[in-house]
Amino acid sequence: MESTMSVEVERKFVCDADIQKQLEEIGAVCIGQKQFQDKYFDTPDFLLTLRDVWLRCRQGCWELKCTTVTKAEDRVGEPQKAELCSRYQEITNLSQIQLKVREFMKEGNGEQKTANQTHPVVHQDTPKTEGAENCPTGNESWLMELNLVCFAEFTTQRCSFTFGGEGDESGVRVDLDQADFGYCVGEIEVLVPKGEDIQSALRKIEKTAQRLGLSGDQRVQGKMDVYLQRYCPEHYAKLLSASIL
Ligand code: V4E
């Protein structure tokens, strides 16, 4: 995420055992592997995530993802397959993040909740993660002021691929993720500077998916879907009812 505001367009897919070989066959080049820890934050009554807003601290860096469009009618003119792709605005500047979070909370609540209005968050046997000591633990003053608590924490091993040249796949990146709670997922993604047209990104993603032989029309669960389903069923059920997941 180079810029502080961009739109991430992505399609998730189920990884076959031979996905790395398939990627190499279509000209993808592995650009490296890394491990990172994510901590996600929300109010105890899920004010952000119920608005499809995702506040995350990854290895000490804050990131906010929020929807750019939510309704099918906003997608007029887009091909059917676009429904398999998600698009989220990404903000990485902490001051902008704090401003946005405050705005979302005002919209969602009439007025901001204070730290005294907490409710217990019930988690079921969440997995323990190691490392990332530089990531705030949730006691930063702005988190406390906005009543934000960590609701999910996991570590991912990621192997990333890109395509060289100026062809159909230029700017396309493929990530193969393995989360420490035992879930693997692939993502084809294109980062679009805010304000630029996303149609070309959608076409590139579709083309890459075709070349990888991804024919399924089913939405594929992300790491967060599976994490919440397993460890925070109450939160998961609320997001399902609100059609967020
Ligand atoms: C947007 C979102 C979440 C935030 C994390 O999203 P995701 O891209 O799945 O995580 P990750 O680790 O791959 O981030 P990256 O490194 O690419 O920045 S968690 C849940 N959502 C909502 C959501 C959704 N509604 N539909 C889909 C397909 N994905 C995510």
TrEMBL record:
Lineage, highest ranks first: Eukaryota, Metazoa, Chordata, Craniata, Vertebrata
Alphabetized GO MF terms: magnesium ion binding; thiamine triphosphate phosphatase activity
Localisation: Cytoplasm
Cofactor: Mg(2+)
GO BP: thiamine diphosphate metabolic process; thiamine metabolic process
EC number: 3.6.1.28
PANTHER family given in the database record: THIAMINE-TRIPHOSPHATASE (PTHR14586)
Gene Ontology cellular component list: cytoplasm
InterPro entries (UniProt xref): CYTH-like_dom_sf, CYTH_domain, THTPA, ThTPase_euk
Reaction catalysed by this enzyme: thiamine triphosphate + H2O = thiamine diphosphate + phosphate + H(+)
Similarity remark: Belongs to the ThTPase family.
CYTH domain: residues covered: 6-230
Subunit structure: Monomer.
Keyword Magnesium in record: yes
Location, primary (coarse class): cytoplasm
Function: Hydrolase highly specific for thiamine triphosphate (ThTP).
Species of origin: Oncorhynchus kisutch (Coho salmon)
A Pfam family: CYTH
Keywords, in A-Z order: Acetylation, Cytoplasm, Hydrolase, Magnesium, Metal-binding
SMART domains: CYTH
UniProt protein name: Thiamine-triphosphatase
Disordered: region residues: 111-135
Group of enzyme by EC: hydrolase
Domain of life according to the entry: Eukaryota
Matching Gene3D superfamilies: Hypothetical Protein Pfu-838710-001
